[in-house]
Amino acid sequence: MSAPPDSDDDARLPCLTTGTPAAATTIEAMVDRLTVLTPSPPVPTMSTASSGTAPVGIGRAWLSMTSANSLTSAAVGRFIVIASAKAAIWAALASPAMIWSMAHAACPRASG
Q: What is the pLDDT of residue 105?
């Protein structure tokens, strides 16, 4: 069993205090001006374009994207290879012990 604490924790201020927000205020004239009296038109939930055909420009763009996509695939992309070859530079900075010590220094009450 551990020894009782030297001081009472209730006498200390809380670590992350927040104030009570001010009550919301409105200006009636602004509310009346921004109130929409007519409902918005309905939004279509299904596409109206036919499924078999597309406009000529879109088909041409799709072909150029697929040809460019094959040249920069994940198997041959140079950024993918470089990113997986190197480890993190500051791995020790993000270690659990380092994070715990930073959190303890910032808020000693939360570490108990």
A: 76
pLDDT (tens digit, 9 = 90+) per residue, 23-33?
A: 666 666 667 66
Distance CA 68, CA 101 (A): 48
Nearest to 75 by CA among 65, 84, 86, 88: 84
2-54 residue pLDDT tens? 777 777 766 776 667 567 766 666 666 667 667 767 777 788 777 666 555 55
Q: Strand runs (DSSP E) across 7-110, as ranges?
A: none
Which DSSP category does 111 fall into? G
From CA 65, how far away is CA 90, in angstroms rounded? 37
The Cα-based distances of 1 to 4, 105, 108 in angstroms read 9, 25, 21
| Cβ contact 100:108 at 8 Å | no
| Measured CA distances, 71 to 35, 65, 80, 83, 91 (Å) | 53, 10, 13, 18, 33
